[in-house]
């Protein structure tokens, strides 16, 4: 019990830091995306976003699943020399693959522009070719921060410096009357700064000069690729699952429709924001539980984290789903209002990921990575079929349905596979009772406020209100147990608040 409590406490402390960083980072990112969308016509924004998406997908292919292989192997390595050796080989592999893919994109950009019937895409794409290399190297370096448990450094790199400094590049482009170039500069500088800060933070243990002095080991390359190859294959499939909607909208519809959808696409993070903060430390800790043959501890760790993921994510999801019109109008202006129904559908579908918890991290922790590929394959097939059928008929809402359904199917297959493999799942009545109560109350509030147009302050008040209702629902439905009390104790430690009355109430 003590070991589990310590791990859950570590997860909470790390997640608190990461979550604060994510709130700030995603807030700044949303501000930047809002500036980009507002400064460009939807058609131009659509072409630019399509080129960026192609480069982003290419970088995921170049990553080759190596970042997760590095995290897992470093988490179980015994000494610094072995960790350095693994880090070196991870960087070497992704550098090679990114170089090849970058050359291909440069030579094939005209063909790509023709496939999506938008010549502006090929013009913009040349500016994004360096992004392939930057994102691939950044993934491995950031993975090392994760393996080292450097949550504060990760937050500074990705969510503070990695957002604040690029905003100045974007602002300069807008002031000079070249917002498209400002957007390109923003996206490139985000990766440059995160990569640079990651290497600076890691320098004391992993000096850059030492990292460049690689003694190539076929065995290390083989072990990394053996673990990462199934992840890479599933990652390629997940790439399609995440971004196929943009590509297929670009193929079937006009560029302005791409612009509408791309504007609201980042808002789906509302469903996974807290999940990302938990992910940072979850895989190393879950791996340790499994390696120590502590399956019961792993199940409790999985279940309690899922409970807080689902409950913590729900308030923002309810705002984005029930008040989608107000969210889109407030953030992007009336010109992007056609995207509101797609936003509601997309966020709803993505919330299922919070309900099932970090199933993908469990798959990696128990070294059952091949199921990642097959579950992703089933999800993407469903996504493709739905997109082909729905996008020509109902437009970007069809794309949102296809993407959401694809992720739901993917997660269901993984959860079933995990249960069949080691007999654990993240579900329990205590997970669902507060969600049901809060949702019913939120629906009632929505029905009584349909005549009101909410601005940014009103939406923030609604989110806060739903958060309070969620906490009250957790207590009122008696959805806490002994492990959950540890979270409250950690909140006391971190904030200095006296929550003894609450703990007494919950333990009674």
TrEMBL record:
Q: Which keywords does this chain's UniProt record carry?
A: Cell membrane, Membrane, Transmembrane, Transmembrane helix
Q: Which Pfam families match?
A: Polysacc_synt_3 (PF13440)
Compartment(s): Cell membrane
According to the UniProt record, one GO cellular component term is: plasma membrane
What residue ranges are annotated as transmembrane? 12-32, 44-66, 86-105, 125-148, 160-178, 184-206, 227-253, 273-290, 302-324, 330-352, 373-391, 397-419, 431-448, 454-476
Tell me how this protein sits in the membrane: Multi-pass membrane protein
The question of whether DNA repair is a record keyword is answered with no
**What is the protein named?**
Membrane protein involved in the export of O-antigen and teichoic acid
Q: Which organism is it from?
A: Halobellus clavatus
């Amino acid at each position: 019990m003590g070991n589990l409590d310590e791990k859950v406490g570590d997860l909470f402390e790390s997640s608190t830091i990461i979550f604060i960083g994510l709130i700030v980072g995603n807030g700044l990112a949303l501000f930047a995306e809002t500036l980009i969308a507002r400064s460009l016509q939807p058609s131009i924004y659509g072409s630019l976003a399509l080129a960026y998406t192609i480069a982003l997908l290419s970088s995921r292919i170049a990553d080759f699943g190596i970042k997760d292989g590095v995290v897992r192997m470093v988490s179980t390595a015994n000494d610094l020399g072995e960790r350095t050796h693994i880090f070196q080989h991870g960087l070497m592999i992704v550098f090679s693959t990114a170089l090849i893919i970058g050359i291909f994109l440069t030579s094939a950009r005209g063909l790509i522009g023709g496939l999506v019937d938008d010549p502006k895409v090929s013009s913009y794409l040349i500016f994004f070719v360096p992004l392939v290399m930057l994102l691939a190297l950044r993934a491995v370096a950031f993975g090392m921060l994760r393996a080292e448990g450097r949550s504060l450094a990760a937050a500074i790199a990705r969510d503070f410096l990695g957002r604040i400094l690029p905003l100045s590049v974007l602002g300069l482009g807008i002031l000079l009357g070249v917002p498209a170039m400002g957007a390109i500069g923003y996206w490139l500088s985000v990766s440059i700064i995160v990569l640079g800060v990651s290497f600076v933070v890691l320098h004391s243990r992993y000096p850059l000069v030492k990292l460049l002095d690689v003694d190539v080991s076929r065995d290390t390359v083989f072990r990394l690729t053996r673990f990462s190859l199934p992840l890479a294959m599933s990652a390629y499939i997940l790439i399609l699952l995440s971004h196929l909607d943009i590509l297929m909208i670009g193929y079937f519809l006009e560029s302005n429709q791409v612009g509408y959808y791309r504007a609201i696409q980042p808002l789906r993070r509302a469903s996974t924001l807290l999940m990302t903060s938990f992910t940072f430390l979850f895989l190393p800790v879950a791996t340790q539980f499994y390696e120590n043959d502590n399956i019961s501890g792993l199940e409790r760790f999985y279940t309690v984290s899922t409970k807080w993921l689902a409950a913590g994510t729900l308030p923002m999801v309810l705002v984005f789903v029930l008040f989608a019109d107000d969210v889109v109008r407030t953030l992007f202006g009336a010109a992007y209002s056609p995207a509101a129904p797609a936003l509601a559908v997309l966020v709803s579908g993505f919330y299922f990921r919070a309900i099932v918890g970090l199933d993908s991290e469990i798959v990696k922790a128990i070294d059952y990575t091949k199921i990642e590929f097959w579950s992703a394959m089933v999800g993407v097939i469903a996504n493709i079929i739905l997109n082909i059928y729905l996008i020509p008929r109902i437009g970007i809402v069809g794309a949102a349905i296809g993407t959401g359904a694809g992720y739901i199917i993917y997660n269901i297959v993984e959860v079933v596979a995990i249960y069949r493999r080691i007999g654990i799942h993240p579900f329990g009545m205590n997970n669902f009772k507060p969600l049901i109560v809060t949702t019913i109350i939120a629906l009632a509030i929505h029905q009584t406020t349909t005549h009101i147009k909410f601005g940014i302050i009103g939406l923030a008040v609604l989110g806060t209100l739903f958060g309070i209702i969620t906490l009250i629902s957790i207590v009122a439905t008696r959805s806490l147990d002994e492990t959950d009390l540890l979270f409250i104790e950690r909140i006391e430690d971190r904030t200095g608040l006296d929550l003894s009355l609450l703990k007494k109430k919950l333990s009674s």
